[in-house]
Amino acid sequence: MRILNAAQMREADRYTIEDIGIPSLVLMENAGRPVVAAIEAAYEERLNGRVAILCGRGNNGGDGFVVARTLLQRGIDASVFVIGTVAEVRGDARLNLDILGRLGVTVVEVGDEQSWELHFSEISQCSLIVDAIFGTGLKSALGGMMETVVADVNAAGIPIVSIDLPSGLSADTSHLIGDCIDASMTVTLAAPKLPLVLPPAEAHAGDVVIADIGIPHDVLDSLEGPHIELLTPEQVRELVEPRTSDSHKGDFGRVTIVAGSRGKTGAAHLSAMGCLRSGAGLVTVATPASCLPIIASMAPEFMTEPLPEAKDGSVTANAVERVLEMRHDVIACGPGLGRGPGVADFVHALVERADIPLVLDADAISVFADDPARLVGREERDVIITPHPGEMARLIGSTIDEVQSNRIEVAGEFASTHHVYVVLKGYRTIIATPEGHIFINPTGNAGLATGGTGDVLTGMIAAWLAQLLDAEAACRLAVFLHGAAGDLAEASEGQVSMTATDVLSFLGEALNELTGQAKDEDA
Q: How many C-beta neighbours within 10 Å does residue 413 have?
């Protein structure tokens, strides 16, 4: 599902109106009615009281006038307030305002702070507030009377439904540009906007509902500019193909996981099980020889391969020869690999010499911190990296705060510059492709912030890459399912108590829910 900025939303509107021929008034009508439907679904009991509709002077206000008319036609008590002067309302918004007048609806003009103080006492007695003041066009912080309006409305303790965006947010950034409405629900029009899906702005959006207003999906998909998408179940579900009855393990890929070192054998196990639980046909853990008995005893389903090791129990540089000799379709490298003296040389050689897709995590990423130019993909061989913010910061010579403040930009720039796929882990995991596409994952929760969950994800990505033979698709599906399994684990164990093993145990259920094969508990 495409996420649009302000310019893209304007172009979508323009193209739909001018090139397709759907009138602007129709789009405005199509915007107001789903807002009412969302209000009725979420706040039915509050519609017994009065609804205050705060309208701006532009098209967002016009949407609000349609909402007011629709509510009144359904017998719901609604009061309409223009924040500004009626004379400033233009275009289609004015047409809808005039319709209210011809229907005998009183519209209150709030042109200054004194007028706001006078009428806010009435607004504060309402059971619901609709925020239709600003839409996607806001670029600078609110000032003057609008600061008072926002502060008073937020302090009223009344549920607020915002149309398109909570007033005060900018469609072009997830950062706060100033004070804004704290919405209980936002009904956004045609497509989600960046501040509705990424922190810190998303905390002010409440529940987000996406309203189809009649702009064709082909128009949204073809817009120029940043290509950012929100992963949806519908989008990733189509990546999972049913298995035929005559399938065999060779059909689903051979994955080698180079992982583990003395004291870090659990990471190898978690990654291997994430790979198996995601459907890989054959999984082999290649690990330092002294670690092999420990890892082999953890599960019977994966194979093991001993690698030359240093005195500290980590791989040596010449271990790359054995890894490259093995038969595999995908190599995942890094979980629990350690920081031993030969690890960097091993990983560097693997990236330079391997001719099959690579998934790099943890220590296999950190070894490039001193020379990130060596971390590159090739047109004939995909490389996927899965850093957490600290690893990403070391890789680009920055700070965690800088990475977290610019997650899309950081991931996108590194992916395109180094021709790799970047899975920047964390809340709202970001997937960036070498072609410049960005995907934001909505699944997952804070319970995933525990050791080992990233190792599970590494194995999952490798498994789906071996099956789908498409790096972008593998990242999208694995990341979505990883977060979905985390959400199921949270429901079962709670955020504080859940572990990486819990995530593993819910991968099957997450996949069944995605594909519609979940068990019916009532059956």
A: 15
pLDDT value, residue 519 = 60
Is residue 238 domain-resident? no
Q: How far is CA 302 from the centre of its chain?
A: 32
Structure tokens given for 419: 């021709």
What domain range includes position 464?
Answer: 249-514
Question: What is the reported pTM?
Answer: 0.94
Q: Which of 226, 170, 227, 244 is nearest to 200 (CA)?
A: 170
For range 317-336, the mean pLDDT: 97
If phi > 0 it is left, if psi is from -120 to 50 it is alpha, else beta; for residue 253 that is left
**Between β-strands 303-307 and 282-288, what pairing exists: parallel, antiparallel or unpaired?**
parallel
- Does 105 fall in a domain? yes
Which strands form 51-55's sheet, in the order they lie side by side?
107-110, 78-83, 51-55, 128-132, 160-163, 185-189, 207-211
Whole-number Å distance between alpha carbons of 64 and 329: 56
pLDDT value of residue 390: 97
Task: Among 230, 263, 278, give the residue marking a domain's end.
Answer: 230
- Sorted by sequence, the CB contacts under 8 Å of residue 192 that are 6+ apart come out as 1, 3, 4, 208, 210, 230
Instruction: Show the DSSP H helices in 439-522 as ranges.
Output: 453-468, 471-493, 500-505, 507-515
Domain membership flag for residue 244: no
Q: Which residues contact 334 (CB under 8 A, 6 or more apart)?
A: 258, 259, 347, 360, 361, 362, 363, 364, 365, 458
* pLDDT value at residue 309: 95
pLDDT for the residue 517: 75
HSE value, Cβ hemisphere, 13 Å, CA-based, for 174: 18
**pLDDT tens digit sequence for 215-230:** 999 999 999 999 999 9
**Two structure tokens written together for 56:** 């701006």
